[in-house]
């Protein structure tokens, strides 16, 4: 009788650990630190929006009697009904005014900034550098500092309390001119322009049919910046407009907020104002989500090209 020898297996040796490359460990620590910082920034910026969503679902009583960062009884539909029916539905009128002001101003400012930036980048003319330096300086001037002189100018022209009092000042975008000048310097090839001139195309036709198509990502970035700036503009409409039917959303909601905070028997509008604020930011969120592919490209190009 012979015993069958069982085969013995030897454990596989662990593969030799690859030595860490020089500088790899510090890069990992830096990446982890940046990730933590970015998450903290993300939470910081999303926190007000989260509070706005939670508060817009509460009634006036629940706003002051429940925990502020969590939901209570769902009252969102009643709040929305109050927003769109209070004062004969003036909120819809304010929303339409905001759309008129923002879309008209953003499109106009984008066209002007694109044309000006293209001209500064591709044409040499007397005083061009000095004029562009003045535009760069205008970027540093806050718009609130120009509100009072603008009001005096429009009052002299009898344009206050009109739509033009908001649209015309919003057409000026020094930052848009700067961004489009930087973007057009590399996005539009000079040899392509020379080829178009050799084929007999005029300068306006070259800009419209050749250059503008190449400038679309930068133009969309300027469009979004102008759209947000005009949509959120509060001080200029406050001093320019007197008629409530011409108010944009920020001024109208601030008027409701003043009514709610006045007390002395006035109607409690806190939940209405909060829900109206939530509704007012939805168009901007949709615009950013739809156009993010263009504006990210334009913003990145404007940040690295000189």
From TrEMBL:
Reading the lineage from the top rank, the first entry is: Bacteria
Q: Biased composition, Basic and acidic residues: where in the chain? A: 15-26
Q: Which Gene3D superfamilies match?
A: MetI-like
The UniProt keyword set, sorted, is: Cell membrane, Membrane, Sugar transport, Transmembrane, Transmembrane helix, Transport
Q: Where is the composition biased (Low complexity)?
A: 1-12
Transmembrane helix recorded as keyword:
yes
- Region feature (Disordered): 1-26
| InterPro entries named in the record | MetI-like, MetI-like_sf
| Domain (ABC transmembrane type-1) ranges | 95-291
Its localization reads: Cell membrane
Q: Where is it chiefly localized? A: membrane
Q: Does the keyword Ion transport apply?
A: no
- Membrane topology summary: Multi-pass membrane protein
Q: Where are the transmembrane segments?
A: 31-53, 99-121, 130-151, 163-183, 204-231, 268-291
The text of the family note is:
Belongs to the binding-protein-dependent transport system permease family.
Protein name (record): Multiple sugar transport system permease protein
* Species this protein is from: Microlunatus capsulatus
């Amino acid at each position: 009788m012979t015993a069958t020898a069982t085969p013995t297996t030897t454990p596989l040796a662990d593969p030799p650990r690859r030595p860490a490359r020089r500088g790899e460990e510090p890069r990992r620590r830096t990446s982890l630190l940046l990730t933590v910082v970015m998450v903290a920034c993300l939470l910081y910026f999303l926190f007000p929006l989260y509070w706005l969503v939670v508060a817009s679902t509460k009634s006036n009583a629940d706003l002051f009697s429940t925990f502020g960062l969590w939901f209570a009884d769902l009252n969102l539909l009643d709040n929305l009904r109050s927003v769109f029916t209070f004062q004969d539905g003036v909120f819809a009128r304010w929303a339409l005014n905001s759309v008129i002001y923002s879309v008209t101003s953003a499109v106009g400012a984008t066209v002007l900034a694109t044309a000006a930036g293209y001209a500064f980048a591709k044409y040499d003319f007397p005083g061009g550098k000095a004029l562009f330096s003045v535009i760069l300086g205008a970027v540093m001037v806050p718009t609130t500092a120009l509100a009072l002189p603008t009001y005096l100018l429009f009052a002299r022209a009898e344009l206050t309390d009109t739509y033009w009092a908001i649209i015309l000042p919003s057409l000026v975008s020094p930052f848009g001119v700067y961004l489009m000048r930087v973007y057009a310097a590399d996005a539009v090839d000079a040899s392509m322009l020379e080829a178009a001139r050799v084929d007999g195309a005029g300068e306006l036709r070259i800009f419209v049919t050749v250059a503008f198509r190449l400038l679309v990502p930068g133009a969309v970035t300027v469009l979004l910046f102008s759209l947000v700036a005009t949509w959120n503009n509060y001080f200029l409409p406050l001093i320019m407009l007197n008629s409530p039917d011409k108010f944009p959303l920020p001024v109208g909601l601030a008027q409701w907020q003043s009514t709610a905070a006045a007390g002395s028997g006035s109607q409690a509008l806190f939940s209405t104002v909060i829900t109206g604020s939530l509704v007012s930011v939805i168009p901007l969120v949709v615009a950013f989500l739809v156009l993010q592919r263009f504006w990210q490209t334009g913003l990145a190009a404007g940040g690295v090209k000189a």
